[in-house]
Amino acid sequence: MELPAAASLAPDTPPAQADGRPFADDPDWALVARIGRRDQAALALLYRRHYDRLCRFVYRVTNDASGVDDIVNATMLVVWDKAPATTPQSRVTTWILGIAYRKALKAAERSRRTEHDPLDEMDDAIAADDSDLRRFEADEVAAAALRRLPPEQRAVMELVYHDQMAYQDIATLLGCPENTVKTRIFHARRKLRALWRELTGAAATAPA
Amino acid sequence: MPESTDAHDTVQLLLPWFANGSLDDTERTRVAAHLEACAACRRQLEDERRVAAAVRESALPGRSPEPALAGLMATIAAREPAAAKAAAPSPTFWSRWFARPSAAPWPMALAGAGALALVASVGSLAFRAQAPNAYHVLSLTPASKAVDANDIHLVMAPSVDPARRDAILAIVDGRIVDGPNSVGAYTVRIAASGGPVDLTGALDRLRGQPDVLLAEAATPLAMPHLGPDLAP
């Protein structure tokens, strides 16, 4: 029996990353501890470090660039409020993105109920005139297809393909079972293929 | 031996994480072994790389976090005034006093300045209350028609009532010739009963009163203790 493998599978190990290191090793937790002591400089540091990733993720979920900063700030305000009582149960990124996910999802649901999606212009152009299709690069079609996925699926796409997160971390972030994460992206991929065919016309070849 | 459908399905669900490199050793090995045998999964893995590229490329343009960060910090400062005050330089007695509601708008730059600047400012404000142009006269000449060499600028605590005010004035045999101005400063003239006025002694007596916040000579030449460089 290989000892390292056995150790990593022991049931009593503290919350740890896939490689077995405890989450507390994430240096960002030291920043969160300082934030818990009301250190605003530490908050600014954490904010700058995570801003790009948070903006991308929130935008992916909401499809609304104008509301991104508001959601990012609401997220970091929760970080500020909860820092004194938070212990390392995941990486800091996972914790923060989880807060952002719930806030972004609420915003996406609000706009889904109240507004026509204004970001479908290119989709409409594609649908209106197939002969114009060659004007659009493949990645633009892919982007249009991505935008048409439900926000829950877009979130998982971003976390897997941009943030390269493990499914265990995504499950923690979303607060759902690991199997749900796996099937959600499976369905997202299937839907993406269907959208691609829809956007490029049945005759065109899917990117597979 | 052909793999079971279950094994194929399991691996298929893991392919996104095989592609992004986050599987642990056990699962990675298992997926890699299946890929050797399964052409469908190999095609899907290729597809994974295309989707990953599409997701990475379609995104918000990068921008500076600073404007949004400033907004967050303002939100926190507004929610937690006590914490914000603790972080700021501790307010001086004078900034507190001038911030009281009854005081008229006061240039905030002066709020943290030393008493010396305040003496000059109270003087100029007291004087401006009666003659807008006289500020320049005050700063250039020892005395003018409006301000006597025996004049004092006096600021009393807001709690001082008229009776107490008269009692304070009586200590130095003074009478009010102007004020109060917008910051509550009076110009008090010390009676010259016979000989020269002991202005320094009068100021000392006034400063000895607990409810006298400020007592200074109104004219620069009457403040020898400040020295030539410091006189306004």
Order of helices and strands of chain A: HHHHHHHHHH
Assembly state here? heterodimer
What Rg of chain A is obtained from the alpha carbons, in whole angstroms?
A: 20 Å
Instruction: Characterize the largest beta sheet of chain A: strand count, sense, and whether it forms a barrel.
Output: none
Order of helices and strands of chain B: HHHHHHHHHEHEEHE
Q: Could you tell me the radius of gyration of chain B in angstroms?
A: 38 Å
Low-confidence stretches of chain A: 1-12, 203-208
In terms of DSSP E residues, the strand content of chain A is under 5%
Task: Give the CA-CA distance, first to last residue of chain B.
Answer: 101 Å
Helix proportion of chain B? 40-55%
Backbone structural class of chain A:
mainly alpha
Could you please describe the fold and organization of this structure?
The complex is a heterodimer of chains A (208) and B (232). Chain A is mainly alpha-helical and 208 residues long. Helix content of chain A is 66%, strand content 0%. Chain A is built from ten helices and no strands. Chain A has helices spanning 3-9, 28-36, 40-62, 68-82, 92-114, 121-128, 138-147, 151-162, 167-174, 178-200. In chain A, helix 2 crosses helix 3 and helix 7 crosses helix 10 (178-200). The radius of gyration of chain A is 20 Å and the shape is globular. With 232 residues, chain B is α+β, with helices and mostly antiparallel strands. Helix content of chain B is 51%, strand content 10%. Chain B contains eleven helices and four strands. Chain B has helices at residues 5-19, 25-37, 39-57, 66-79, 81-87, 93-98, 108-111, 115-128, 134-140, 162-171, 199-207; strands spanning 151-156, 174-178, 185-190, 212-217. Chain B has a four-stranded antiparallel beta sheet with strand order 2-3-1-4, with helices on both faces. In chain B, a hairpin with a 6-residue loop joins strand 2 (174-178) and strand 3. Mean pLDDT of chain B is 72; it is low at 87-145 and 221-232. The interface between A and B is large, with 44 and 38 residues.
